Amino acid sequence: MIRFRSEFVLLVACVLLTTYSCQQSAKEDEASSTQKPNIVIIYMDDLGYGDMSAYGAGTLETPNMDFLANGGMKFTKGYASSATCSPSRYALMTGTYPWRNKDAKILPGTAPLLIGLNELTIPKMLKKQGYATAVVGKWHMGLGEGQVDWNERVSPGPNEVGFDYSYIMAATQDRVPTVYLENGLVQGLEPDDPISISYQENFEGEPTGKDNPEMLTMKWHHGHNNSIVNGIPRIGFMKGGEKAKWVDEEMADHFLEKAKAFVQEERDEPFFLFYAMQQPHVPRTPHPRFAGKSGMGPRGDVILEADWCIGQFMQTLEDAGLLENTLVIFSSDNGPVLNDGYYDDAVEKLGDHTPSGPLRGGKYSLFEAGTRVPFVTYWKGTIQPGQSDAMLSQIDILNSLASLTGSDERSADGQDFSKTFLGKSDEGRESLVLEATTRTAFRKGDWVLIPPYKGPAVNANVDIELGNDPDFQLYDLSKDLAQQQNLAEENPDKLKSMLADFVAIRGE
Ligand code: NG6
Ligand code: CA
């Protein structure tokens, strides 16, 4: 009896224990399947396909960018949606082709917000999934509704389209206002020195790059001859806000600090950070720690500076114990340019470096180098290192992240390549519309169709082939990556079918 009783007790204990451990492991399963990864998009400004050493071109060494590419998935056919900044950023945020929005052009610093308040955006979507969201760095998607008073809270802006926290420059480093805004408020602004901005005319008595060359530390080549800030002539006129003006050489460190602070603050809950770096866009102003380091002049130096920042940022994730729970997407908003309006030795000191890699064209161009950019996904322990030739566009990021985080929201133009992002599938886009300064071209499979466009073949100021031609152009990238052989005439059938597919998406 005693024996029986003790056996019975043992049995009951076993049953209870098993049930308990089953419940426990079910709970753990649930927890791991609902645990959402942090998401960081590191977005460069004008970094070319060949500017990153992991892409096997050029002579610049970018060890921290390479760390992401070599430890994650390196995409060889990853595209920005446009060959310029504002349209690319708009498309990235909304998953919508930029040519659907007639205002998606390179914006002045006074342009109204480009993203509609009702539009779906990555941060809005992720917010609903429980994410803390932030943007740090270059915005350039417009602010306000047309009449911005920079001395009041500027809105609508990033905080009105899904970002809980924003620390941004309004437009570009070469455009006024040359100040930082935190959650819509200009930082360091003194009430007795208000800011006035105009893109039409100068304010009385204010020096300009055009009229006061003696005040310049950087010379302008084309454009960039309006207000002078820190010895650098800019686009647009600005008066006041002396104490609020940024120090160009400190910008990289400044944004890095803000990005790190956000990660440290939000480490205990899922977060999304859009870390939009300003390099290597003009004016190129490396911190003295990096000046002269590349031997390629300021353009090379600021790429090394950005690379260092990425290393520091990744170290922050590691120190916070977040590396294995964070998906990092690294890319660039458009292709490379050397002389983008200042004399800064980018051309003279280039040496053997090839910012476009094996591709034709560059920033502003419908040729490949305009939009094909470095594109990397990194997630320690989840993404096995590898290379993928799947064709992806940045408009696919929204839908892929939605799928990954359990959201059922989708943009109409984007596709879900979450498995490809994680290296678990080779599936990519079948076709893609490319955009450059409101012109469009069409890629399907290995073929690219560029319709006839008026306008110069080469933008002489920046010395980049734009893709304009009076005739149709048709290239087979599988045999001719550098787009040297126009096959339009000898392949009328291919041309016809490409054109029909293009028109079906793009409209007449
Ligand atoms: C161009 C600027 C160029 C750059 C570009 C925007 C001139 C002559 N050129 O208009 O320097 O600022 O706009 O670049 O003003 S982007 O990467 O933000 O699209
Ligand atoms: Ca850009």
UniProtKB/TrEMBL annotation:
Q: Which PROSITE patterns match?
A: PROKAR_LIPOPROTEIN (PS51257), SULFATASE_1 (PS00523), SULFATASE_2 (PS00149)
Q: What is this protein called?
A: Arylsulfatase A
Output the lineage of the source organism: Bacteria, Pseudomonadati, Bacteroidota, Cytophagia, Cytophagales
- Keywords of this entry: Hydrolase, Signal
What GO molecular functions are on record for this protein?
Answer: hydrolase activity
Q: Which domain of life is it from?
A: Bacteria
Sulfatase N-terminal domain: from which residue to which, for each copy? 37-406
Q: Name one Pfam family in it.
A: Sulfatase
* Family note: Belongs to the sulfatase family.
- The secretion signal range is 1-26
